[in-house]
Amino acid sequence: MVIVLVAVAVVSGGLLAWINHATEGPIKEQDELALANGIKSVLAVEELQVTSNDEIKKTIDNKEYSFIIHKANDMSGNFIGAAIESTTLGFGGDLKVLVGFDAEGKILGYTILQHAETPGLGAKADKWFQKDGKGSIIGRDIKTKLLSVSKDGGDIDAITASTITSRAFLKAINQAYAAYYDQNIDGCSSATKQAKVEDEISSETSCE
What we know:
Elements lengths: L1 H42 L5 E12 L2 E11 L5 E11 L4 E9 L4 E8 L10 H4 L34 H22 L3 H16 L5
Antiparallel strand pairs: 1-2, 2-3, 3-4, 4-5
């Protein structure tokens, strides 16, 4: 019986390893395709060229966050903006957002890459902040004022019964902008302005 059990374990382990190896390539290809389509979607451009995929780390409110910045040009080689992957802690776990900014820093669009929020409530974030009205973040310029929900003194309507998810989502967008701002604005004033952005994210106040 021991020999049989060992044989079954060996065969099962080998089979699982083979399946994992066989599916690894297709899964990776699907993930890359989904990301490529996501970048086009959040930048609101069908034809573009991704020129760099930079992973950076920033310390905000004494915690280190990782971001991936996908810079893009149009087909004529003109810089059109960047799509940033940003992750924060939501109500049920990690909330990962891909948000697109134009060359001036205005929000073009976003998509949710990963979440563990409550179905029917926090999960509404994938559409809520794109709709017309006080819930929309599309076209917002965070340079002048960070995004925050009405309960925190902002002007964004939180998802009904999901304030925690709404705060986490907006924090991910604000932090993505901080990473983007640091990557794309230079000159003597940028360091001061960037410090302001990061300080505001930590203190949850708005720009003067």
